[in-house]
Write a structure and sequence with these properties.
heterodimer; A: 180 residues; alpha+beta; B: 201 residues; seven-stranded antiparallel sheet; 40% helix; extended
Amino acid sequence: MDLVDLIAEKRFIGQEFLTWLWWKSEERGGVVALPGEGDIVVVFEKHMLLEYGEGDNNESLICRGLQTELQEARTGLVMGKKLEQARIQLTYNDYEWNFTMAAALMEFRNVKLPKTGGESGNENNPEEREGMILERIFLFEELTRLVLDLFRLFLKIRVGDEWRDELVKIREWVNKAKKD
Amino acid sequence: MGFIKGTASYVRFGVEGDLPENIWDFIADKVAAFAFRDIDETYEEDSLGWVSVLNMFDTEFDYASYAAGDFVTLSMRLDERKVSSVIVKKYVQKEEERIKKEKQIPKISRSMRVEIKERIQNELMRKALPVPSVFDLCWNLENSTLIFFSTNRKAQALLEDLFRESFGLTLMQQIPYVCGEHLLEEEDVERLARITPDYFV
């Protein structure tokens, strides 16, 4: 199968991951336990985009606002829409990243790197320039690694026997939006 | 932009294919061979090639090396001469009017119209200043992945072509499914291939 077909046929995997991650982070008040790493803070904030339908019939719903107003996005899930984009705050080892995950293609958008205090502003020194580049590489790679670790955690459950139980819990959480 | 300063948007690629043993010599040769060539003083329509991530005028990498630890950091620079279709239309009409008056003919033939359009388009293109776009990348040699700092599809397609031409390596976009194939054990990859969408309500 070529990439274009793969993207179309398998876009649900990224979207299911993002929805699962939203549920997973809310399950423990914003904390997700990452095997081998410990707790990582994952907070869904401000901006979400949900999709409904495919191809030309594709519709989208944008939800903005504070944490409590994300209720609207969950109502979107009840209506069968899929979570395609979300603004996420991720905190690990004193580093805090803010980024938007576009799920179908796993694009990292508007990534704000953690403040490190390492920027001296002296661009004329070649060593400092290389140091600055290496630091930014590390921060991008670290964010990517953590998201991929979370994705691996999801995938192992998704293809395994635990998924049925997990799905029941996610459905309960989604359906709670109807009652709230 | 965004790799060096400010907020950034990026996608990941897997780098497929083998590199020779003397990796850094090979990369140095290829980067030099496919470095960006300026077209400001020529009439060429476009130019595509590698420049430094810190300075788009640096194609010799004097100011900063592209090597950083086990990473290769490069910018893909594209300079393009563009003329808006509205401008082309305006000057084609103007030229048609001029010819009609000069030759005292009521109508311009189809073949002549095609010739006029082509000529005007070429003339305008020569006058247009090349518009630069720069896209950064960071290639991890250790695990053969690459971060490309643009979500623009056209830029991604250009990168795939330039990368293949330069290094003889293929880039495979790491969409979630492809990522999953790398992250899971063989047995789980087979299960991943079989899963279908689930409803969350």
